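Lecture 7 notes: from sequence to structure.

We start with a single chain of 368 residues. Read the sequence below before looking at the structure.
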Amino acid sequence: MHSTTSTRTARTTRSVRLTTATIAGTLVLALAACSSDSATGGTGDASGSRSATTVDVVVHDSFGITDETKAAFEEQSGLTLNIITTGDGGALANKLVLTQDSPLGDVAFGIDTSFASRAVDAGVFEPYTSPELPESAADLAVDGSGTLTPVDYGDVCLNIDTGWFAEAGIDAPVTLEDLADPEYQDLTVVTNPATSTPGLSFLFATIGHFGTDGYLDYWKSLTDNGLKVVEGWEDAYYTDFSANGEGDRPIVLSYASSPAFTLSDDGASSTTEALLDTCFRQVEYAGVLANGDNPEGAQAFVDFLLGDQFQADIPETMYVYPVSPDVTVPADWESFAPVPTDPIALDPAEISANRDAWIKDWTAQVVG
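Now the structure, written as tokens:
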């Protein structure tokens, strides 16, 4: 089990992958103006001095790889791995689109469900189907082109403070509809979809469940029932959520994996529980960048991401599930972070076409 500090830092980095500017489109303009002098944004070198002995990997800030796993790739492939960080997930997508004619690297990791179709439609990636891709991951594909390779997935779900409900003598909610019941008035805190990846995923969950004709009515019922909306996951989880001892709201937006990090001292139980009927699945992809200098190295890295060593590291480094069914997740995950069997989903192309309009409409309805 991770320490509270390390878990909090990793989850905070992972969760706040969007900014209002990213959603509104203004980040695109800013990036276009400064892409020539701030393309890397991290540890890599995008100066153009690449060679066939190096593979340049463009990632978001939450990408995790251990020193041992990095060394294993370099030993197996004979290539030097150069990691180029770009900011949050929205910034990664924007930079890849803006620089597609002269890409920042050879391969990218971290395009997620929210932005995948946009990048594919823009021609950012070259089609590549890895021989290492498990058949069980086929349903995670963006489309049938094989352009993006699913590497990991996670589920954004409502979590509850089980002790709070036991002490209050109130049955815990189960469904999205339950949150609008007066019994749960003033008990729920979620994050803003314009400023938080979990918030955006929860917005998608409500659209997937209630439809485009019904989701705004549902949000009105939530706000009428005392819903609290905050800017980021850390504020919701560590300030407002009652399970952490300070907050007064026992229902919070988080992840299906979160209960694996709220264990009792003896590890026999968790103080929280994910509501698995409220989950929206996020998938992260890797892809070979069109016009990259080392396409063979890029393909080798995509293959490596699907290998047992990297896949086994994913729960500990990025706090999500690997796509490989052949690796063992930590025991705490098996017991307290089960994979939702029927998560809510939306077509990535539908998300790409409507994301900004949905956020605008949500803002008008909820924020005013």
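The mean pLDDT is 86. Keep this in mind for problem set 3.
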